[in-house]
Design goal:
Distance between the termini: 42 Å
Oligomer: single chain
CATH class of the largest domain: Alpha Beta
Largest sheet: 9 strands, mixed
Order of helices and strands: HEEEHEHEEEEHHEEHEHEEEEH
CATH superfamily of the largest domain: Periplasmic binding protein-like II
Strand content: 15-25%
Number of helices: 8
Shape: globular
Helix content: 25-40%
Structural class: alpha+beta
CATH architecture of the largest domain: 3-Layer(aba) Sandwich
C-alpha cells in the first residue's frame, strides 16, 4: 500500500510538471493586465517598466504578449482578471488575497526625495528637518500620509496636497497623483521633500536635470497606537485563483530569469532591497 501511494504521488508530480511545460509551450498569447496610463509602470505605448518585464516573461514562456489595458487601476482583478479577459498582472503585492501570487521578484520601499544641493539630513520619519520644511509632496492614502499624520504635519500639507491632483474621473471620482509631477515639485524647488513609493519615482529622479537624492525610509515606523506602518513591500505577479499551473510556470521564469529581471529594475533606477525572513515578509 505504501509503495502504491508513493507511485501515485510521483505520477501526480510528473503530470503537474508536464502540465507546466505544456502550458508554457501552448503558443497561445499571454494576456497581461496593464493600466493604459499609469507610468512608470505601464501605458498603451508599452513604455513602462512593467511592460518590459511582461515581454521578458513572454519570451521566457515562448508566448506572444498581448496587453489588455484598463483606465482605472482599482478594479482590474474584478473586471478583467477574474473574467478571463487577461491572464497575469505584474507588480501586485506579494500575498494579495484576491489572487494567486508568485514568489516576489523584487522588494523596494518608500523613499524621501530631496535636492542634492540642499543636503537635507533625512534618515527617517523622526528627522528634525521634516518638522521644518514648508512643503512635503506625498500621495494621499499611502503610508506616507499615515506618517505625516503621526508627526503632526498632515494638516499643514492638506491644501498643498490638493494642488497636486492631476486627474479626476467621472466614475467614482478616482483621483490620480502623477509621480512625475510630484518629483518635479522637488526638482523645481516648489517643495523641499517628497515621500513616495520608490519604484513610482525612480525614473523621474534619474531623469531630473536637477540632481536629486533618494533615501530609502526604514521599515520600523509605528503610529501613535503602536501599529506598524510598513514602508517596504515585495512585488509579485498575480494570476486567477483557479490557475495554479500558470502560477507554477511564472515561478519557474522568476527562478531562471531573476538576473535579467534585476538588471531591468536597476536600469530603471529602482532601489532594491533584500527579502526579509519568510515569517516577517510583507
Amino acid at each position: 500500500m505504501y509503495k502504491t501511494k508513493c507511485w501515485l504521488l510521483a505520477l501526480s508530480i510528473l503530470d503537474y510538471g508536464t502540465a507546466v511545460t505544456a502550458y508554457a509551450d501552448e503558443g497561445k498569447p499571454l494576456k497581461v493586465c496593464a493600466a493604459e496610463d499609469e507610468m512608470p509602470y505601464s501605458n498603451k505605448k508599452g513604455e513602462g517598466f512593467e511592460n518590459k518585464l511582461a515581454l521578458l516573461v513572454g519570451q521566457a514562456l515562448e508566448r506572444k504578449v498581448e496587453f489588455v489595458t484598463w483606465p482605472d487601476p482599482r478594479y482590474f482583478v474584478r473586471d478583467f482578471l477574474d473574467k478571463g479577459l487577461c491572464d497575469v498582472a505584474m507588480g501586485v503585492d506579494f500575498g494579495d488575497p484576491r489572487l494567486l501570487t508568485t514568489k516576489p521578484y523584487y522588494r523596494s520601499g518608500y523613499v524621501f526625495i530631496s535636492r542634492e544641493s540642499d543636503k537635507l539630513d533625512l534618515e527617517n520619519w523622526n528627522s528634525e528637518v521634516l518638522r521644518k520644511v514648508q512643503r512635503i509632496a506625498f500621495v494621499p492614502g499611502s503610508p506616507a500620509e499615515v506618517m505625516l499624520r503621526a508627526i503632526g504635519r498632515y494638516n499643514d500639507m492638506f491644501n498643498y496636497s490638493q494642488e497636486l491632483v492631476g486627474f479626476k474621473s467621472r466614475r467614482n471620482q478616482y483621483v490620480k497623483y502623477e509621480a512625475s509631477k510630484l518629483v518635479s515639485e522637488i526638482s523645481s524647488g516648489h517643495a523641499e521633500v517628497a515621500a513616495l513609493w520608490g519604484p513610482s519615482a525612480a525614473r523621474y529622479v534619474k531623469a531630473s536635470a536637477t540632481p536629486l537624492v533618494m533615501t530609502v525610509i526604514p521599515d520600523d515606523n509605528t503610529r501613535a497606537d503602536g501599529q506598524k506602518v510598513g514602508m517596504h513591500y515585495s512585488s509579485s505577479m498575480g494570476v486567477r485563483k483557479n490557475d495554479p499551473v500558470l502560477l507554477q510556470a511564472l515561478n519557474k521564469v522568476i527562478d531562471e530569469q531573476q538576473d535579467d529581471i534585476t538588471e531591468l529594475l536597476e536600469e530603471e533606477g529602482i532601489p532594491l532591497l533584500d527579502e526579509p525572513d519568510p515569517e516577517n515578509k510583507s
